[in-house]
Design goal:
The complex is a heterodimer of chains A (609) and B (247). Chain A is α+β, with helices and mostly antiparallel strands and 609 residues long. Helix content of chain A is 24%, strand content 36%. In chain A, strands 10, 12, 14, 15 and 16 form a five-stranded antiparallel sheet that branches. In chain A, strands 21, 23, 25, 26 and 27 form a five-stranded antiparallel sheet that branches. Chain B has three domains: 2-99, Serine Threonine Protein Phosphatase 5, Tetratricopeptide repeat (Alpha Horseshoe); 113-184; 187-246, SH3 type barrels (Roll). The radius of gyration of chain B is 23 Å and the shape is globular. Classes of the chains: A alpha+beta (609), B alpha+beta (247). At the A-B interface, strand 31 and helix 4 of A face helix 1, strand 1, helix 3, helix 5 and helix 7 of B.
């Protein structure tokens, strides 16, 4: 959470910095008052507007003024009508040490290769009038007597400034103070071209400097340069809040010093302490990194720089051909242990099967530089009977003596007995230190005998058109069904329409039914009913509303030809006649009538479409 | 008639090509059984050159490379095989065996337990499997939807089926998408015994750390002869391309 806010803030700042880059840079110095007494506090503000990428300017000592705190840093960003203006203000508190005219000289500051100068300021200092309430009106008698730089200061140093590549440098940052301090905040430098290693926790001790006892907080870090050339460790900043004792119990409104407008007096601590934030900056350090000399460089030198010793042991000393012997090589000393490569093995290496070394780094001490050990373990398997192990050589560069040194150990004696058992193929597995012996009986599974569905390399099913079809077809089907169902529902809601569209089918069914009935009279009645029902459905009338005699009028309206009208009338009349007179409908006539009715239905279906 | 003949010709030629690759494969198997691993490797690689592959082929290539003491290459082929068939127990066993012999021990960045389970689940099936699962569930969902339109009497039952199936479809779609992203991630394996990893793409850049054969990494970008890689623990560095084999 904190982190994200920090990033957000950074982004915010970055945006403004970017926005303000076009703004003109201005540098001004101002004081809160021009006339003051020897007991007043003078607040000097150095304002840099138009940029925020600037550190505190260096203040030269000013004659007649004693620095009592500062700089207190504040930044502000304002947006007026879309125009962004940024500024950074450094505030210093001074107390006058003499009466008369005091001149604050103009200050110089370099921003982006350009020099800016502020105007000098003239002050007049008068002797303090008798204080109204005994104590000093600004409530900090102690404050005005001692210069702030004697109460708190920082020291930033490297133990060496000229080194060779990969040599250890110990960086120390110390804050000295002999005044109560509330919060100490230290921003470690961001280095480039170095490998960093922390050196323990911060230390705190007391030290006497020029006869004054100080509390010291020390932070150390080890650096290993990774490239040659002139490298710079950037400036380090620390922030602290100083607590000054304040004697004033209650401030009178008549005291016209800067205290009232002082933003740093704490209402909670107000009775006893006054809080003064300060920002302390230490200068950057230049480190000259020299490349390692080529002269006298041993062949097996692998980049180790420092002061080292080596210890070698081999276990077991008696074994059979094909059994492993473990070589343990321990390199101890001061330097960048992480970068150290395994010592070289020399001797009859052909007689052994060698495995890659494994290593482990232990840091033993982080006091005044990294000291530790790196343990390498190499597994050797003698292929035949040998009496001696290979010897071990380790080369490093000693930066104190400025020369290369080579340490030699071994060879050690070894008793190798002839192989007792047949060496199975599995021993061709590289032995790993991580594994126990029983793993020796393990091997990979045998190859597959079936090629198992060879297919073009890189072919995946989701890129095939079939997949796309599989994705789209269901949707298309679903939409199709949806449309169909909607359509059907719509027509189901309108029974007349259903009747209209199904009339032809129903009529034909009825005619079919009529055919199978033996009783002539009933057959005729059914034929008539089929046709009348059909006409009723098609003309959207009830069945009773169809009058056989008026059919011609009805059909003519619907656009039937005269011939068609006569046809239907003939059929209907025949049916009617048969129904009432009876017996007329003979088998042949009946069938012909049904055929005629069917034929007429065909024509009618086309007309009623 | 002419078209038919051409079709027939194409059919036969593809069939004979497949048959040819099958014979290369079994020839490789025969040589492997005889212990002529180098020759076996050649035969298997010929199949690859024809542009064809299968999980079994990569498995056999992995075995052969292992027998030839090429740990990195072997692991690379096994991983390729795993991509096509993540459920083969023999393959998983071989990979475990090889990985226990790696020099570099890399602790992956700890992940949320839910995410861990998700990726484990996604990895347990191949991309083609997920594609099929997804299509089945997806098709089923639409069948239920259509049935829901048509069968009024079963509306309630179908609605429940659609709900369950819909949730299943979303879950499988998530796995499917995850599987696609895994498939499209370019991973590589270090093939050389020891490789210095640098801060930048040139010999003059400072050494960051050294990596050993068989270590897997993710390929981020490439520049001329160099590749930028990311390890499972989040470390990023540049390596010469020649020391890497793509999975």
């Amino acid at each position: 959470m904190k982190k994200s806010i920090f990033y957000l803030l950074n982004l915010f700042l970055f945006m403004f910095v970017a926005a303000s880059s076009a703004e003109e840079v201005q540098f001004t110095a101002s004081v809160d008052k021009r006339a003051l007494t020897t007991q007043d506090t003078l607040v000097l503000s150095l304002t840099i507007s138009g940029t925020q990428k600037v550190g505190a300017p260096k203040l030269p000592p000013i004659e007649g003024l004693n620095l009592i705190y500062g700089p207190a840093v504040s930044s502000s960003t304002r947006i007026i009508n879309g125009a962004v203006s940024t500024s950074r203000v450094f505030q210093y508190g001074f107390s006058p040490t003499k009466e008369g005219v005091v001149i604050i000289p103009g200050f110089q500051i370099g921003i982006k290769d350009k020099q800016y100068k502020s105007e000098p300021i003239e002050l007049s200092v008068e002797k303090a009038t008798a204080p109204t309430k005994g104590a000093a009106s600004n409530g900090s008698a102690e404050q005005s007597t001692v210069n702030i730089s004697d109460r708190i200061f920082v020291e930033f140093e490297a133990d060496k400034t000229e080194v060779v590549l990969n040599e250890q440098i110990v960086l120390s940052f110390r804050i000295y103070f002999n005044i109560p301090v509330d919060g100490l905040n230290y921003e470690p430098p961001v280095t480039q071209g170095f490998l960093e290693e922390p050196l323990g926790k911060q230390r705190s001790y007391r030290k006497i400097v020029k006869g004054v006892e100080y509390q010291v907080v020390e932070i150390q870090k080890a650096l290993f340069p990774l490239k040659a050339g002139s490298l710079e460790i950037p400036a380090v900043k620390a922030q602290a809040t100083l607590l000054f004792k304040s004697q004033a119990k209650k401030r009178s409104s008549s005291s016209v010093d800067g205290f009232f407008s002082d933003p740093f007096s704490d209402s909670f601590f107000g009775k006893r302490y006054v809080r003064r934030p300060v920002e302390l900056t230490a200068d950057p350090i230049k480190i000259q990194v020299n490349p390692l000399p080529e002269e006298g460089k041993p062949e097996d030198f692998s980049g180790a720089v420092g002061d080292f010793a080596i210890k070698v042991s081999a276990q077991p000393q008696e074994l059979s051909v094909g059994d492993p012997v473990t070589f343990t090589m321990t390199v101890t000393g001061k330097g960048n242990l992480k970068n150290i490569q395994a010592p070289t093995l020399k001797g009859d290496l052909d007689k052994f099967k060698l495995y890659e070394p494994e290593s482990k780094t232990n840091i033993l001490s982080r006091q005044n530089g990294i000291r530790g050990e790196k343990i390498f373990e190499v597994v050797l398997v003698p292929k035949e009977e040998v009496a001696l192990t290979p010897s071990v050589e380790f080369s490093y560069f000693n930066p104190d003596l400025l020369e290369y040194e080579t340490l030699k150990r071994g060879p050690f004696s070894l008793t190798v007995n002839p192989a007792t058992t047949l060496i199975s193929q599995t021993t061709s597995l590289p032995l790993s230190q991580k594994k126990s012996v029983e793993l020796l009986s393990q091997d990979i599974f045998y190859i597959k005998t079936n090629a198992g569905g060879l297919k073009p390399i890189g072919q995946v099913e989701y890129k095939k058109p079939v997949f796309m079809a599989g994705l789209t077809l269901p949707v298309v089907f679903y939409l199709g069904f949806l449309l169909w169902v909607r359509q059907r529902e719509k027509s189901l809601l309108n029974p007349e329409k259903v009747r209209f569209s199904q009339a032809g089918r129903i009529a034909r069914q009825q005619l079919k039914g009529a055919k199978s009935i033996k009783e002539d009279k009933e057959t005729m009645a059914l034929i008539e009913k089929a046709l009348v029902d059909y006409l009723a459905s098609k003309t959207k009338q009830s069945q009773g509303a169809i009058n056989v005699n008026e059919v011609n009028v009805l059909l003519a309206e619907k656009g039937f030809s005269e011939e068609e009208v006569i046809q239907i009338k003939t059929i209907l009349n025949a049916c009617e006649l048969a129904r009432f007179s009876g017996g007329i409908g003979q088998g042949a006539q009946k069938e012909e009538l049904i055929a005629q009715a069917n034929k007429w239905l065909d024509r009618a279906e086309k007309v009623f479409k | 008639m002419k078209k038919f003949l051409i079709g027939l010709f194409i059919l036969f030629s593809t069939m004979s090509a497949v048959a040819q690759e099958e014979s290369l494969f079994s020839e490789g198997n025969r040589l492997y059984a005889e212990g002529a691993f180098e020759l076996a490797l050649e035969q298997y690689e010929k199949v690859l050159q024809q542009g064809e592959a299968s999980s079994a082929l990569y498995f056999n290539l992995g075995n052969t490379a292992f027998k030839l003491d090429q740990l990195g290459q072997s692991l690379r082929y096994y991983k390729k095989s795993l991509k096509l068939d993540p459920r083969d127990p023999e393959l998983k066993y071989n990979i475990r065996l090889l990985e226990s012999q790696l020099k570099d021990q890399i602790t992956p960045i700890p992940q949320n337990r839910l995410l861990q389970t998700y990726w484990k689940f996604v990895r347990s099936w191949s991309l083609d499997h997920w594609t099929r699962f997804f299509l089945i569930v997806y098709g089923l969902l639409f069948i239920f939807l259509i049935a829901h339109l048509l069968m009024r009497s079963l509306k309630k039952v179908l609605l429940r089926l659609i709900l369950v199936n819909g949730i299943g479809c979303v879950v499988i779609a998530l796995c499917f998408v995850g599987s696609i992203s895994l498939y499209n991630q370019t991973n590589a394996i270090i093939l050389s015994k020891e490789v210095p990893a640098r801060f930048g793409p040139s010999e003059t850049d400072a050494l960051a750390f050294t990596l050993h054969e068989g270590t897997q990494c993710q390929l981020l970008s490439e520049k001329e002869e160099w590749a930028q890689i990311k390890l499972a623990d989040g470390k990023i560095a540049w390596l010469p391309k020649k020391d890497l084999g793509l999975i």
